[in-house]
């Protein structure tokens, strides 16, 4: 069962990105300014490329909200792609406008190009790139910003994150990124996300698909370029039970813990401690330096396609992962505490 559900649509250089969110009860305050702040966070960060200079992502809410509050009907969100102005002909839906300008057939290893071309029988890898691009994460962040407002209103749940490492650098990330940029290369990294003020009992142990940690892991793994996700202390494999498990004590009649190695989840349920997630993002696969690959049209060895790209998008990725987790928590919180309408 799922309450907070959404689908997104839109190509990277298409007209706009859209999301329809279903399942939000009536009465929630939705502040578009907060959504725009989150969109801005996704766009900033050291190492972003040329596209971010073109876009200034802004949300338009076209349904489901009236006088600042949700109506209980589907909420539709739209972000216009400013770059569409330069791509109208290339992205046209009219067959008479056909052009092979911006078509390419030299796969980028690490991107969706190769498998996507085989799966959907696309000869032009542009047809794969347009939807597989991380551009679509803009609208996902907007959906997450709605979810964050819901979990804040129901339970006062708050979210924060920090970058732990970029490439080999544990601090001084900018120098590491500058060096990679000069060398025409890209970088990934590692980050941590924390959610605070969780009630006990979100998720469940009764079925595999109701486990909160399983849902969070799936949500974070589906962020482009994420290669691993862990919850709590990721050194668990080398710790003893007596060291790892978070012992329980009583303080003024309240159960307290002095450690949080479990990362706020035990038995597939929130245990009231902060939920702590660590994730690893691989380096972006669109490199100025290029990589050895195959040209799928000529079936000869070639150098991978390059147009423009970010050098490092770990900061943006962190914002997207926060958004994804917020959607899972919104679903759980609505299921547990709110039915058709909400009142503070
Ligand atoms: C992105 C938009 C894209 C890329 C980037 C993320 O825009 P464009 O392709 O026009 O430069 O900058 O996407 C990737 C690096 C990728 O590999 O998909 C964005 O809005 O975040």
Walk me through this protein's architecture.
The protein contains nine helices and 17 strands. By secondary structure, the chain is of the alpha+beta class. The strands form six sheets. Strands 1-2-6-3 form a four-stranded antiparallel beta sheet, covered by helices on one side. A four-stranded antiparallel beta sheet has the order 7-8-15-10. Strand 13 and strand 14 form a beta hairpin. The two termini are 25 Å apart. The model has no long low-confidence stretch (mean pLDDT 97).
Produce a short descriptive summary.
The protein has 344 residues and is of the alpha+beta class. Helix content is 28%, strand content 24%.
Question: What is the secondary structure topology, with strand pairs?
Answer:
Elements: E1 5-9, E2 16-22, H1 32-43, H2 51-54, E3 60-63, E4 65-66, E5 69-70, E6 75-80, H3 113-120, H4 126-132, H5 137-155, E7 158-166, H6 173-182, E8 189-196, E9 200-203, H7 212-221, E10 226-231, H8 241-244, E11 248-251, E12 254-257, E13 265-266, E14 269-271, E15 275-281, E16 292-295, E17 300-303, H9 314-337
Antiparallel strand pairs: 1-2, 2-6, 3-6, 4-5, 7-8, 8-15, 9-14, 10-15, 11-12, 13-14, 16-17
Helix pairs in contact: 1-5, 1-9, 3-4, 5-9, 7-9
The structure holds ligand EPS.
């Amino acid at each position: 069962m799922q309450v907070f559900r959404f689908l997104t649509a839109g190509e990277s250089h298409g007209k706009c990105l859209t999301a329809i969110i279903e399942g939000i009860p009536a009465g929630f305050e939705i502040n578009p300014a907060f959504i725009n702040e989150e969109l801005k966070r996704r766009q900033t960060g050291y190492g972003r490329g040329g596209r971010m200079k073109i876009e200034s992502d802004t949300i338009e809410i076209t349904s489901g909200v009236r006088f600042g509050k949700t109506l209980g009907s589907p909420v539709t969100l739209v972000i216009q792609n400013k770059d569409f102005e330069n791509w109208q002909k290339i992205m046209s839906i009219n067959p008479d406008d056909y052009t092979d300008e911006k078509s390419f057939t030299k796969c980028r290893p690490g991107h969706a190009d190769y498998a996507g071309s085989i799966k959907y029988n696309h000869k032009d890898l542009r047809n794969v790139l347009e939807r597989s691009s991380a551009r679509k994460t803009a609208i996902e962040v907007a959906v997450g910003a709605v979810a964050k407002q819901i979990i804040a209103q129901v339970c006062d749940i708050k979210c924060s994150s920090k970058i732990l490492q970029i490439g080999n650098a544990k601090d001084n990330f900018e120098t590491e990124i500058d060096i990679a940029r000069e060398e025409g290369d890209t970088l990934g990294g590692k980050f941590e996300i924390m959610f605070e003020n969780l009630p006990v009992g979100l998720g469940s142990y009764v079925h595999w698909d109701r486990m909160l940690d399983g849902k969070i892991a799936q949500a974070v793994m589906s962020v482009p370029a994420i290669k691993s996700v862990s919850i709590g202390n990721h050194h668990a494999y080398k710790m003893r039970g007596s060291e790892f498990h978070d012992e329980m004590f009583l303080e003024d009649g309240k159960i307290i813990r002095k450690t949080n190695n479990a990362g706020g989840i035990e038995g597939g349920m929130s245990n009231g401690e902060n939920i702590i997630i660590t994730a690893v993002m691989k380096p972006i696969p669109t490199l100025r330096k290029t990589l050895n690959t195959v040209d799928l049209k000529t079936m000869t060895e070639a150098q991978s396609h390059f147009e423009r790209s970010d050098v490092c998008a770990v900061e943006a990725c962190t914002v997207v992962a926060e958004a994804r987790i917020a959607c899972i928590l919104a679903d759980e919180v609505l299921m547990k505490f709110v039915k058709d309408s909400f009142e503070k």
